[in-house]
Amino acid sequence: MKSKKTLVDLLLVGLTVLAFWGVATFIELSERVAKFSQTYEAFQVDELPLTLLVLCVGLLWFAWRRTLVVRSEVNERIRSENKVQELLKHNSDLLQRLFTAEEDERRALARELHDDMGQTSTAIRTEVAVLQRSGGLNEEAQASAKRIGESAQHLSNMTRQMLQRLRPAVLDSMGLRQALTSMCEQWQSSNLTLCTLSFAGEVDHLNDYASVTVYRIVQEALTNAARHAKAHQVKVQLALDAKGLHLKIEDDGQGMADAQAVPTGFGLLGMQERVASLAGQLDIISNLGQGVCLGVHIPMESLSDSSSFG
Ligand SMILES: Nc1ncnc2c1ncn2[C@@H]1O[C@H](COP(=O)(O)OP(=O)(O)O)[C@@H](O)[C@H]1O
Ligand SMILES: [Mg+2]
To answer: Does ligand 1 have an atom closer than 6 angstroms to the CB of 149?
Structure first.
């Protein structure tokens, strides 16, 4: 394409020169110029053609020098852009490692919580039940045993909730679609606000890293909607197509004053970093009184990367 354009330009120059030569021959241009310059010889007009020729050569040299400078500037810019791309890739890799380490830590914590706290609270409830059944307790001891049982039950519920936040087992066992569905249902019943979910494409085929990224983003968005939005409804749409992954989370709440400002809270910042770790884009659209719409796009290349939690 580029060489075709150069050829056309050269052809144009050649044709112009030929046309000029034809016209000049036809009207005897040089003779006319010579005659004219002889008339004004006193003003040294006859020196003009050669001087103009030198000017032409000078301009050619100038253009050539400029071309060299521009070429080296373009090369320098290409090198800088490559460097920036490299640094961005490096940054994404570092963020992925960071989030992978964080998820590993959460998984380990969840395991310990499940094994220690979960089993201990179950053991306490079992002992309390044995005590209550033994019948040898006076009224005060019965009441105390009941309270211990209730506290153990509370501990057990808390542990289950913490486990859910730390590492939802359903994400590992049943996939992203089911994990998001049960998160939405739980959120809906504890916030008494409608949460609708829609899926398009094979979202369960995403690798671990991408699944956890989507899960955490939706989790934070729902937490924000419950905390800040005063919404009546939240819509979550997740689609996977040939271009990549598209996630949209909309609420009809009170909105944000300045959605374009650099996020100051850790929630939106964390979301941005998670999206950046997959070279994606996060758009926050909101006006006061008009709810918040979060749009996430992750390109297909980042999804087909082999990066995933071990
Ligand atoms: N869905 C929402 N509706 C209204 N305001 C929101 C919403 N999500 C976030 N915000 C605003 O953006 C701020 C930053 O959110 P975030 O980074 O998650 O931090 P945090 O939730 O800890 O305050 C919130 O304090 C809130 O003012
Ligand atoms: Mg938040």
So the answer is: no
pLDDT tens readout for residues 236-266: 999 999 999 999 999 999 998 776 776 677 8
CA of 187 to the centre of ligand 1 (A): 17
List the structure tokens of 164: 């859910």
Tell me the CATH number at 254.
3.30.565.10
H or E, element range at 272: helix 266-276
Query: What mean pLDDT is predicted for residues 181-206?
Result: 94
Q: Give the number of other Cβ atoms within 10 Å of residue 218's Cβ.
A: 26
Structural domain includes residue 224 = yes
Q: Is residue 125 part of a domain?
A: no
Q: How far is the CA of 152 from the centre of ligand 2 (A)?
A: 30
Question: Judging by DSSP bridges, how do beta strands 233-241 and 194-200 pair with one another?
Answer: parallel
Specify the pTM: 0.74
| Residue in the structure block whose two tokens are 């005063």 | 230
Write out pLDDT tens, residues 140-167: 888 999 999 999 999 999 998 888 888 8
Can you list the positions of beta strands (E) in the chain? 194-200, 233-241, 244-251, 281-286, 292-299
Q: What count of other Cβ atoms lies within 10 Å of the Cβ of residue 164?
A: 16
Verify whether ligand 1 is closer than 6 Å to residue 299 (CB atom).
no
Nearest CA-CA partner of 238 in 286, 303, 192, 301: 303
